[in-house]
Amino acid sequence: MIRLEISVEAMKREIEESRNQVTTTLGNLQTERSTWKETLLTMKDASITASDNAIQETKTQVQEELNVLAAEKERWNKELKENVKMPEVVLFSARRPKHNTPTNGQTMIFTEIILNKGGAYNKEDGVFTAPYTGVYTFTVQFCVHGGRYMDFSFVANDKPFKISRINRGGISSCSCQSFDAMTIVNKNENVKIKIISRSSSGTTLEESDNHYWNTFSGRFIQAI
Known about the structure:
The chain contains one helix and ten strands, in the order H-E-E-E-E-E-E-E-E-E-E. By secondary structure, the chain is of the alpha+beta class.
């Protein structure tokens, strides 16, 4: 009987020890679980923060690029408006040559403005300066004494684009003749009438306020 009581007491102690070990182990597991939970939450918060920072940084970079593109677009729009801006009319007409007996190689200067819409013709030097790149047409009329001739050219940026002659050989009276020419002129390039050669003696050109004029005219046709 005594032995049985001793065995029971021993079993109780073992059971109690086992229960204590289990309780300790469960406590340790609970502690580790809490530690891992806190670690995971910390990692999650850090990941979210990093992600938010990356997103914000990307948004900032995109906005900066959009600002640059907007500024570039504004600059191009301004330049485009300036380049395509045109007056309603580019048109001129002038008369009365400065020299009735021009020399070879001389630019004809028509000193009296009839009209000059756009202000592109200069009566001081006889030069038309194109305000815009495009197609232009020009007309010159010369009234030459009988028995005289004159060769001349339409010149754009110092290059002839039409060469003509007016010849009144064998005719006793003055006669007038008009010549037309069309060309493409770039912005700020000039157009003028230049004498190539003429009769070696006597006055070449004649003009009458009431009957016949020497004239130079031109107009802008269209942009290209």
